[in-house]
């Protein structure tokens, strides 16, 4: 069965294990620092860089503010161009729709373009459950799939692996799924790329069905746009008879002209290139040119929940460039798997809780997976204020009535609130605390569920008398 982030440990537990993996940390650091340096140099070339970021943020906010209008316009234009639009409220709906569409073709093996949304909804597993094999064609995504692994970065899913580890995966696994790796394959990048190219070529020429995502949806024309570096996406978009595109509803932009802004930002932030080698766009179907059948599956899966959050909705501006991960000191030390989602790093720390809500045990800890240094704020091409959202999400857990709270914690806060509301009781409690302070152990943790507080803190000295008592015994109390 395809591997998924299911029953993943909470971030503190997963991070503790990841930070002990020295090879992982070295791989992640090398890759993120390389992309970070290239991105910085190319951003500095543009005197209008900050203006582009302002424009991108404004355009995304406009689209999100009128999301219903633009989605209806998009549906009309796609339908007018010969495509078929489907709406999926959640992952289950999306998987059922795509699975049924593939089953109708009679095919049992399809090809895919790297899509974080299809990873988010667990599409590969749903297809596998009904006997359909979905083979990834993006190099990094194929490496992850061949290695029965999980993605660790939104742009470079195999970022956590070095080229020797990749060579070993190719040699061990390629022959099980088609053309085997060449004899005496080394870890030279050119040889690895050629081995992947030969392996994938068979898939491209045989496939009758392809599944894609999209970087952008243009409401004005019903056009979908994919930006990539290898050309595998274009092969998937043009060779099969049936194309099924599974896209989040937040990917819509109002007009074709708006793409000008995003295309100038995306490649520079994502891979440190001035321009993506391949930018493919398609609108419906055309006789004799590309797939004869096109389906667009528009997926919510928590996005309208995020949209309803006045602070958190800015996370839906994200164009999946990965720049926030490449500068994050926490991600650099833990890698992406510790986040327990296909969206790791700073964007994962805010997007996952927004999509799933504050009651999900795994995602409730993610807003704390940050040093609040603000580096992510500075590189985000659509000006997401990560630190603002992180603090808001922390408050939702700490001050709200989230089910993930320990029952003892809920009871304790309720009791303290009752005492603080009752003036005589509060004064008595403060006096008692001063007398009990001498009995608290200085180098021992608190008992039971309270130990979480003292695991990372020392118990402070409790004064023998309160501020109010001191104040009354000074001149301040008589004024």
From TrEMBL:
Q: Where is the 4Fe-4S ferredoxin-type domain?
A: 308-338
Question: Which UniProt keywords are given for this protein, alphabetically ordered?
Answer: 4Fe-4S, Electron transport, Iron, Iron-sulfur, Metal-binding, Repeat, Transport
Lineage, top-rank taxon, reads Bacteria
Q: Which SUPFAM superfamilies match?
A: 4Fe-4S ferredoxins, NagB/RpiA/CoA transferase-like
The record, for InterPro entries, names: 4Fe4S_Fe-S-bd, 4Fe4S_Fe_S_CS, FTHF_cligase-like_sf, Helical_ferredxn, LUD_dom, LutB/LldF, LutB_C, NagB/RpiA_transferase-like
Pfam families membership: Fer4_8 (PF13183), LUD_dom (PF02589), LutB_C (PF11870)
Regions crossing the membrane:
none
- The identity of this protein, by name, is LutB/LldF family L-lactate oxidation iron-sulfur protein
Q: Which organism is it from?
A: Streptomyces gibsoniae
